[in-house]
Amino acid sequence: MTMLVSAVGVVGRIAGDLLTSALSWASSLLFGRVPKSHQIYLILMMAASLLWIVTLVSLLIPRVAGLLLSTTPHPALLNTWLVLGLALAVVVLPVCVGLCGYLVPTEGERPAGFAVVLELLRGYILAPLISGLLLFLAGVGLARKIRSLRHGWSETHVPIVVKLGGYEQLVDDLQHALASADIKLAAKDAAWVLTLPARVLTTFAGENVRKLRPDRLIELTGRGMRIGVYPSDIAISGKARDRTRARAAMVSRLATTSAHLTMSAEAQKLEDQIAKLASPNGDGPRAVSRSAFEAIDRRLTELPVSTEEWDTLYRMRLQIERDVLAHKRSRAPRGST
Q1: Which terminal residue of the chain, N or C, has fewer Cβ atoms less than 10 Å from its own Cβ?
Q2: Number of H helices, E strands in the chain
Q3: DSSP letters along 112-148, please?
């Protein structure tokens, strides 16, 4: 019996990890560009939507509520209060979803006046819509993971934030980076099961939420590998050795492409300054004074960001300096030192 309980626990943890990963992947498909400081509103919006569908099912199917109560001892009076609480939650949670959707954009981009009321009421559309789309995409994600496991594949993720209007350029840069490592992949539009949910969300959601969804989804595919290019993530599926080669080739190009590798506004601002040192006019490396890098170094010592973001910025700074120095040496006259 102990072995059986342990086996069930292991299976449960694996299933939970898969579901969590699938929901995270689903949210990256529906919502792309969100400032780090406002991501909490997006998380709350998705959580409230999922909680709304649970409370609605519990209210419509009393056995579900009874099953939830049976897991812990409780007084009989709680049964009556539970029904009232579920009914209240079904009414209030969509308003919370609408409020979170209103707060997601930065303060200067939020609507004002009577439009605020409309955004709150829009939660009654967004709550069932978002919960349904998340569950649908989570199922798609699980199916894709199972298919990858059948091929002996696993996934490596590279978190990014695509700059506004820079998705096509990102795809082109990634293809060139992969080709330079002798990895030939063809770009094609993602399957309809990945693009349809974003279109549905665009149709019914307000302008606040509409700005977050990806404009287009492209996958890079080839023999033994599939790379999904999403507005907030690059997912590399394949064998371990192939994934490592592809990630190394792409990350080396991401420092100067139309995407941020950091999430906070402060880090992204410095990231843009570092990228300008490499190619201020988009024409490749150029001669840069030592003082320019020293200014970046001083800013790095004062930047209040996470260790992960700081490491990313410092790696980019070193990479840009390497490229600039290599360009300088290649242009130096022969025989000069």
Answers
A1: C
A2: 13, 7
A3: -THHHHHHHHTHHHHHHHHHHHHHHHHHHHHHHHHHH
Nearest to 45 by CA among 286, 209, 178: 209
Question: What six digits make up the tokens of 59?
Answer: 């209210």
The residue to which tokens 């033994």 are assigned:
224
Cα angle 150-25-56, degrees, rounded to a multiple of 5: 110
Residue whose entry in the numeric block shows the structure tokens 């790379």:
227
Q: Domain extents for the chain?
A: 12-142, 262-337
Length of the chain, please?
Answer: 337
The string of pLDDT tens digits covering residues 222-267 is: 888 999 888 778 889 999 999 999 999 888 778 778 888 888 888 9
Residue 207 CA from chain centroid, whole number: 20
Q: Do 246 and 236 contact (CB within 8 A), yes or no? A: yes
171 contacts: CB under 8 Å, gap ≥ 6: 187, 218, 220, 229
86-104 CB burial, b ≥16 within 10 A, e <16: beebbeebbbbbbbbbbbb
Cα 60 from Cα 131, distance rounded (Å): 17
The Cα–Cα gap between 122 and 206 comes to 8
Do 134 and 27 form a contact (C-beta atoms < 8 A)? yes
Helix axes 2-30, 192-204, angle to 10 degrees: 60
Model's pTM, two decimal places?
Answer: 0.69
SS3 call for 182 = coil
